[in-house]
Amino acid sequence: MSLPAADEYLPGHGDPAYDVRHYDLDLAYSVVTNRLDGDATLSLVTTVQTKRLVLDLAHLDVAKVRLTGAPLGRYNVRSERLVVDLKQPVAAGTELTLSVRYHGRPRPLIDKRLGDAGWEELADGVIVAAQPHGSPTWFPCNDRPDDKASYRISVTTDAGYAVVSNGLLVEHRQRGSSETWVYEQDEPMATYLATVQIGRYRDWPAPDAPESGIPIRIAAPADLDADAFAAAFGRQHEMMDVFVDLFGPYPFPGYAVVVTGDDLEIPLESQSLSTFGRNLIRGDWDATRLIAHELAHQWFGNAVTLARWQDIWLHEGFACYAEWLWSERSGGESADVHARRHWDRLDDLDQDLVLADPGPDLMFDDRLYKRGALALHVLRLTIGDEAFFDLLRAWVAEHLGSSVTTDAFLSYAAARTDADVRGILNPWLFEEELPPLPAS
Ligand SMILES: [Zn+2]
After folding, report:
1. Per residue in 38-68, is it b (16+ CB within 10 Å) or e — as a string?
2. Which run of H or of E encompasses 259?
3. Distance (Å) from CA 375 to ligand 1 centroid
4. In angstroms, what is the span from residue 2 Cα to ligand 1's centroid?
5. Over 90: is that where the pLDDT of 206 sits?
6. How much distance in Å is there from the Cα of 424 to the middle of ligand 1?
7. How confident is the model over 309-334, as a mean pLDDT?
8. Is the CB of residue 104 less than 8 Å from the CB of residue 28?
9. Lower Cβ count inside 10 Å, N or C end of the chain?
10. CB of 262 within 8 A of CB of 122?
11. In order of start, what are the domains of the chain with their CATH numbers?
C-alpha cells in the first residue's frame, strides 16, 4: 500500500489522516558518540476515518510503540516512515496517544533538490536545522508544515554543554556527569521549526533590554571576541523594538540567539530562537541584515506559517523586506533605495521563477527573497505607509499560531484596503517576468 504525502514539495512526508496536538520529547544524547535515545509521546486526533497512522522518522531504530485510545496492530519502519496499523479503523475525531521509543545515531536527511537538513554534529555539539525536511532525523513526527502542535522537549546530555531549544526553559538540573534541560513551547509550532542546539555555550549578557520588555537570551561560546559580539548584537534590543512597532507584539515569551562554535554557511530561524555561525558575528551590513532577517521570521514564518511549501515567499519575502525596514529605521539606506538596487539586479538575472510556486529547486533561491520583498514594497508604495503597516500587524494578529496561503494573504489584503491588491500583486506572484517598479 502506498504511503501518504501531504505536500507536493515534500514527497514522502506528512500524513493528512491525523493532526498532532502535542509532542512530548524525552531525549538522552551523548555528544562524543552521537547516540540519541528518545521517547516521544504524541497526542493526536484523527481527521478522517483511518486504520493507520504514518509518522516520519529517518535513520533511527524503533524499539517500542504504544498506543492508547485504540487497539494497536503491527508497526514497521520503511522509506523513512514509521507505519503504525490499528486493529480496527477509528472514526474521524478520535483522540489517540502514541508513544515511540527509539534510538540511533542521528544524521541529516539528504534530498537531491532540497539539500541536507536535520540533526547534525558540530565540531563540539549539535545543530538541528530542519527546514524543510529534517525533522524526522530526530523525532517521529507528522512532518507537515500545517500541522502545528505544542511541545515539551527534555534533553539530557553530558555536563558542561548547554542545550537551547524552543520556548521557555522550565527546568535545568545536573545529576552526576549529565545535565537535563527542559523546554516548553506552548504556542503552536510546525515540525520544521523545532530544534535542539547543543554546545559549550554560556549566556552572554545582552547589551541592553528592549523597551518592549521581551527577554533576549544570547548563548555563545565563551571565547567569542567581545568587540565582534558588540558589533553584531549591540542593537538587537532596538531591532526588537522596531519590529514590535512595525509588525505588532512579539509572538513568543522570549527570544534566544545561539552562536555556534563552528562557522555556518547560513543562519537559521527556529521558533523563538535563531542560530548564527561564529563567522557572522560582525557589524557589517551583510551580517546585520541576517540578524534582522532571522528575528523577523518570528512573526513571518513562525507565528504565521505557510500551509504549503510553495508559499515560502510569505516567509522569505517578508523577512527580506524586514532587513530593508531595519536599515531604514536604524539610520541606514531607505527600503526604497534597497528595493531599487535589487530590482536592477533582478532585472539582469534569469526570469524563470514564479514567486507563489517556485518549485522545490528554487524555494530558497535568493531571487525569491528579493522579489518577495519587492512585491511588498510595491504594495506599500501603492497603499501608503499607514495602511501597509496596519495590514502587516493585522495579518499577524489575526493569523497567530495558524497556517496560511498566498491566496489567504491576497484576500486579506484586498478586504482591508481600497487598492486593487490582486491587480498589483498578481504579476509579481504568478508571472515569471519582472514587473516594473513604480516611482516612489
Ligand atoms: Zn529566511
Report:
1. bbbbbbbebeeebebbbbbbbbbebeebebe
2. strand 255-260
3. 16
4. 34
5. no
6. 24
7. 98
8. no
9. N
10. yes
11. 18-104+136-187 (2.60.40.1730), 202-296 (1.10.390.10), 306-430 (1.10.390.10)
